[in-house]
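Illustration: Glutamine--tRNA ligase.
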Amino acid sequence: MVNDKEHHTENFMFRWIKEELDQNPFGRNMCTRFPPEPNGYLHIGSAYAIHTNYSVAQTFNGTFHLRFDDTNPLKEDIEYVNAIVEDIKWLGYDPGKHIYFGSDYSHEIYHAAVKLIKKGKAYVCDLSPNEVTEYRGTLTEPGKNSPYRYRSVEENLELFEKMKDGKFSAASKVVRAKIDMASPNINMRDPIIYRIIFSEHYRTGSEWCIYPMYDFAHPIQDAIEGITYSLCSVEFKDHRPLYEWVLKELDISDPPRQREFGRLNLTGVVTSKRFLRQMVEGGYVDGWDDPRLPTIQGLRRRGFTPESIRSFIETIGGIRTESMVDISLLDHCLRQELKGKSINVMAVLHPLKVVLTNYPEDDVEMLMIENNSENEAMGKREVPFSKTIYIERNDFLEQPPKGFHRLSPNAEVRLKGAYFIRCEEVIKDRETGEITELHCTYDPLTKSGTGFTGRKVKGTIHWVPADQAVKIDVNLYEKMLLDEETSMEGGKEWTEKINPNSLVTIQDVLIEPSIKDFPLEEKFQFIRHGYFCVDSKYRTHDQLIFNRIVPLKDSWSNK
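Result:
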């Protein structure tokens, strides 16, 4: 469980709430909630909202509720419920026994609508969806009253009862709150509070054919659960007057209070559920847990940890408006966590064969190499060394530019944890001219760890033993959107905004055999390539597929 009582002193949300609580406005303990609709998977923006609600409750010794807003059977599924519960617990925001479902309050919400009708504050309207939109008006022009606004209380009650009993077709009738069609706030222009939907509900089955709208159900659900603060993102600010109107007209004493915080967006990342669903269902990605997606499931599969995500959210702090945050900050938070904890191993993504011509033919020696160069406590591991090894192809240049400190003809480098080698001969394919292998010599007096203090070399490169190396596949990820794109909305077709290089898979990568000695759940640093983990979706001992979590370069810390 996360403990957030120690900070937030500079967070505007916490200052507001503390000032209000100092006046003792509630006759009950602090209580917040996170109300996801189970029609998709949680994403990084959801984590920000969860953190805000959870940490407020923790800071003020309150309770945190997870409540599913499941009042639209057309889109919701138990699959999403299970995934959301799993993700929230994985993030460290466990609600414990406080997991609720809006659909469980169906009778209370129905009777709330009946109460409004009896008070003359709601009516059954026969306008079509297009007519409702037409009558609503615009941001600059007031709406006009529905001709059905003047029905009697008795007629409205009778019609609403028939709606509940399935006597009318879908979309033929709705229930609307009677507020003010001339209100400057378009959300207050007689909003729809109930509609007819004939669809099996994953939880209540066919018990209901009428379902409340979110803006109506939400404050009622909050009141039933004793929520004190309904904390939501800033796009709901214009909905607050309706939230308060519902509670007032239902005569709710000590009503919950809605307060808003900024909405989190990340550069190069899609957080719209609509587009995420289209990418998943259209086969553009490998499910909701595709490592390129900002879903919590995707981040988990890619290799992010709950600690790194929480650190990212805490680093952002409180935001008041819709904000765009550079995704490199998220990568930075993960690097900061992993750099002293991950096993450092040698992997060669694009192998180039090296034969050490003066090394004993059948000799294999075991070299001790540190597991983490920044943390001696992580110990060392054995790596076999022999006559033939592989290095990275780009660690050798036949005609090196000035400042190139890796391997080139007649130049020396150190092999990581091993010896100095000198390139003596370059072997090429006669037809293509491609370099196929290097013939080098090694200096047996330069073995690492022997206290050698002779000549020095400027470069150290990694390597893997040819005979004992393990073959793996590696997935390299980039942003899902092209660099110049910031949104899936507007302009060209959204499919044209997807980065075609968001996933590059390299097969037959060679990695040192010690990889077999570590748990598959371990996080690794592939020396000079970044942080990696085994793809949990395809995790077997027979075939290892590694996902690069983040490269080593940390652009955020340089800003």
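Reading the tokens back as a structure: Confidence is low (pLDDT under 50) at residues 4-9.
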